[in-house]
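Sanity check

After download, print the first record. It should look like this:
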Amino acid sequence: YEELGEIAKSKTDYERIITIDDQYAQAYAGLGKILFEQKDYLNAELRMLRAATLDATDFDIIYLLGRTMLMTQKFRKAEEFLRLATELNPDHPKVYFYTGMALAYQGDALGCAALFNSYVNREPDNMVGRYNRGFALMNAGFLPWALEDFEAVLKQNPNHLEAMARKGQCMASLGDAEGCQLIQNAANKGSEYAKARLDFCEA
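Expected structure tokens:
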């Protein structure tokens, strides 16, 4: 039913399984996944926690629990579960991405950059990863490296306004006056980040 998109019937079956066997981890996980996709993150978290209690060695359960806790803003716990997911499946690229997000929300720019680096190494053509790594590196103060990532993103998508604005910020901070032109250009096209940085260039 889940594969067919008949979500109500799928939920009914999962709930029926739980009434028969309340120790069946995959049924709780199935419900949690549906609730996550429906953006009901608090209830998804409850189901995934129950699933994880019953089976702490299932990568998919631990990974989705970590992602769910990102959405409920329990960033430290999200990091713990995502790191456990990494131990269970170290070759899964996106587990590094979401662990990096958990660290970013906790203000750990260096740790975030390292995790995004692991993600990009596994999916080098993924521009979301490159942009986020650049963002983390910029916040950590590694401007030349951040600049490389923003340039790579803009090479693939010249209209990525946030990459344009942040490239300009890096360039201006490194003393390159052309950075302010990029910030102005991004601001003119609607980037709120660039608009907030116009005073930096006027100073």
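If your output differs, re-run the checksum step. Summary of this record's structure: Residues 7-20 form the longest helix (14 residues).
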